[in-house]
Amino acid sequence: MNIFKKLFGSQTTSKETKQEENKNFDVLKYDGVRALRMQQFEYAAKCFVHAIELNADDLECRDYLSQAYISLGDLEHAYEQLQKISEKQSDNIAVLLRMAEVAYMMENYSTMADVCEKALLLDDKNVMAYYLYAKAYHGQGDLNNAISMLTKAIELRADFDVARLLRGNVLLENKAIEEAALDANYLYERTESNEDVLLLKARVEKAKANLNEAEKIYSEVIDFDPFSIEAYKERSEVRKSLGDIVGATEDEERANEMETATPQSSEGIEQKIKKKMQQMDPYKVFHNF
């Protein structure tokens, strides 16, 4: 009889322990989500780490942890969590694309390309996979394949303006000025006051030696964003070519003043991450930063 009581007692303790672990897991996960929404990223990460120790199979918790790590700039651990999710859900394209984004932020373009390839094997009509693949090729300096990937994305979705903007810039970088002009003109006509589009258009006009038009559009950039260092620098070059030495000097001095006032070294991790994601998605179509 004592033996049965001992066995029964052991089962009860085990059951109670499991219930307590489940309760603690729920509390930690809830606190982590709340901290994540309040941008208390370090505390959120700690909550999720302890929650996963209690339940390693909760993939949603790993996803939240990856978000906390990204916000902290701990990209390797963020990628590690996403990789664990992908191992459990090998057909989850959204996770693969997130992995590609994190690899992009780490500037690990070969890993990014591999992940994009896996995504396209699952869905060869996924425009975001082609777009990210193009970013990977561009990061590796392979401009022709970057253009090819972007063209496929645009063929699948004609209004994919983010891809068209990148293609215009890569074409210009690849000295294909007339082709770049087609993308620049298309975007300029259909997009209202977008700094990145205006810069592309100005650069194309500058490359075509349409200097008066280039100066006009650089001025539009500056009207839209008075703190665009690039626009001041490049307008200075155009004005110098036009013989406007006074205007060129003023632009150059203004650019130097802004660079001195906001040194790159003062940029925090969070701002660097946001900047990297902004480069990926300048229209903020896929991200809400």
TrEMBL record:
* Pfam families the UniProt entry points to: TPR_8
Q: Where are the TPR repeats?
A: 127-160
Q: Which Gene3D superfamilies match?
A: Tetratricopeptide repeat domain
Per UniProt, the keywords (alphabetical) are: Repeat, TPR repeat
Name this protein carries in UniProt: Uncharacterized protein
The organism of origin for this protein: Leyella stercorea
- InterPro entries registered for this protein in UniProt: CellSynth/LPSAsmb/PSIAsmb, TPR-like_helical_dom_sf, TPR_rpt
Q: Which residues form the signal peptide?
A: none
